[in-house]
Design a protein that fits this description.
The structure holds two protein chains of two kinds. Chain A is mainly β. Helices cover about 0% and strands about 50% of the residues of chain A. Chain A has no helices and eleven strands. In chain A, strands 2, 4, 5, 6, 9, 10 and 11 form a seven-stranded mixed sheet that branches. In chain A, strand 9 and strand 10 form a beta hairpin. Chain A starts with a strand and ends with a strand. By secondary structure, chain B is mainly β. In chain B, the strands form two sheets. In chain B, strands 2, 4, 5, 9, 10 and 11 form a six-stranded mixed sheet that branches. In chain B, strands 1-3-8-7-6 form a five-stranded antiparallel sheet, with no helix packed on it. Chain B is globular. The termini of chain B are far apart. The chains are: A mainly beta, B mainly beta. The interface between A and B is medium-sized, with 27 and 26 residues.
């Protein structure tokens, strides 16, 4: 059964550094999402992406964040200048449709900003 | 926007007992309600979902009920097993733009042998 994969599984970075989190969605999915989960808290929506464009973004997703799908398979989340409060688990998700469709989550990348 | 409340935050049961987790949502236009199981260090895994045209859905030991009038939905796990121990999240879709999920705060279920 195909799965969403994410790399790296863990990343430690210094405050102010850039990080890129990578995801390989399931091949027949068209809609892609990033969520984050601060330790012990609920999963929060960051951004949705379709047809090489951002569809919607939350207030968390400020100018320091960007997403792209550079080669039709990888889906990346970039944080340009990390802050301490960016420390969280970041999940990539994907689905085949836009409405009432299952979203399949990857295993996550644990980001620690020091 | 949509807000999802989930109770209880922790639930301890004996193996073989039933477990019930309840969620309420605020946006009456929401139509899709998935439940995810998250094991330690892993991503959320869909275990069951329900759409607004259905009041109840069952898959083996797991069932979900939806009351759209009252804006609440519940997860029922029967004959619990130790491997059911995990954090369970309910979620609801939103009606703005493409589907995004709004999650509840999670329930930590512990099933003791």
């Amino acid at each position: 059964e195909p799965e969403v994969t994410q790399t790296p599984s863990h990343q430690v970075t210094q405050m102010g550094q850039e990080v890129i989190l990578r995801c390989v969605p399931i091949s027949n999915h068209l809609y892609f999402y990033w969520y984050r989960q601060i330790l012990g808290q609920k999963v929060e929506f960051l951004v949705s992406f379709y047809n090489n464009e951002i569809s919607e973004k939350s207030e968390i997703f400020d100018d320091q964040f960007s997403v792209e799908r550079p080669d039709g398979s990888n889906f990346t989340l970039k944080i340009r200048s990390t802050k301490l409060e960016d420390s969280a688990m970041y999940f990539c998700a994907g689905g085949r449709g836009a409405y009432q469709e299952t979203q399949y989550f990857g295993p996550g990348t644990r980001l620690l900003v020091l | 926007g949509e807000n999802v409340e989930q109770h209880p935050s922790t639930l301890s049961v004996q193996e073989g007992d039933s477990a019930v987790i309840k969620c309420t949502y605020s946006d009456s236009a929401s139509n899709y309600f998935p439940w995810y199981k998250q094991e330690l260090g892993k991503g959320p895994q869909l275990i069951i979902d329900i759409r607004s045209n259905v009041g109840e859905k069952k898959d083996q030991r797991i069932a979900v009920t939806l009351n759209k009038t009252a804006k609440h939905f519940s997860l029922h796990i029967t004959e619990t097993q130790p491997e059911d121990s995990a954090v369970y999240f309910c979620a609801a879709d939103t009606t703005t733009g493409f589907q995004k999920l709004v999650f509840g705060t999670g329930t930590r279920l512990l099933v003791s042998p």
